[in-house]
Write a structure and sequence with these properties.
The protein is an alpha+beta fold. It has a single domain, classed as Aminopeptidase. It has four helices and seven strands. A hairpin with a 2-residue loop joins β2 and β3. α1 crosses α2.
Length: 149
């Protein structure tokens, strides 16, 4: 795995099938194609490519007029723990700030059906500046400011 061949770029609806195929490497189910297409064409969305292969993505949705929801962040298992998720989330935050968002919210749940054991990403999100504001034991809700008020 050559980290020098990685490229981060904006995603749009033309990347929908690549996202679905990447999801299928890990999750039992995926989101409807039309929903992903709409999200990619409407809100900040980024992908990381190794040569031409999508290996990671982060897409967002509207939560409130000045709050963006990190709907999904995913890194292929072979590329995890290499700083890709951190870089992807940093770039997503920067893009959201440029579009006028003041805060971000996300959830992380163990209840999604996956093909392998799912782990809480609490430490990752806390390292990224998020605070857990609610935890059910299976699902955490995290928030963070994106800039000074």
């Amino acid at each position: 795995m050559n980290m020098n061949n990685l490229e981060t770029r904006n995603l749009d609806a033309s990347h929908t099938l690549e996202i679905i195929n990447l999801y299928k490497t890990y999750r039992v189910t995926t989101y409807p194609e039309e929903q992903i297409e709409h999200i990619l064409d409407t809100f900040p969305s980024l992908g990381v490519f190794a040569n031409t292969e999508l290996i990671a993505f982060c897409y967002t949705e509207f939560f409130a007029p000045d709050v963006i929801e990190i709907s999904s962040i995913f890194v292929h298992r072979d590329w995890r723990r290499k700083g890709i998720g951190t870089a992807l989330l940093h770039r997503t935050h920067t893009q959201a700030i440029q579009e006028g968002y003041k805060a971000a919210i996300l959830s992380n749940s163990l209840l999604y059906k996956t093909k392998e054991r799912k782990e809480h990403a609490r430490h990752f999100y806390e390292r990224m500046g998020y605070t857990c504001c609610l935890h059910t034991g299976n699902t955490g809700i995290y928030v963070r400011p994106l800039c000074s008020y």
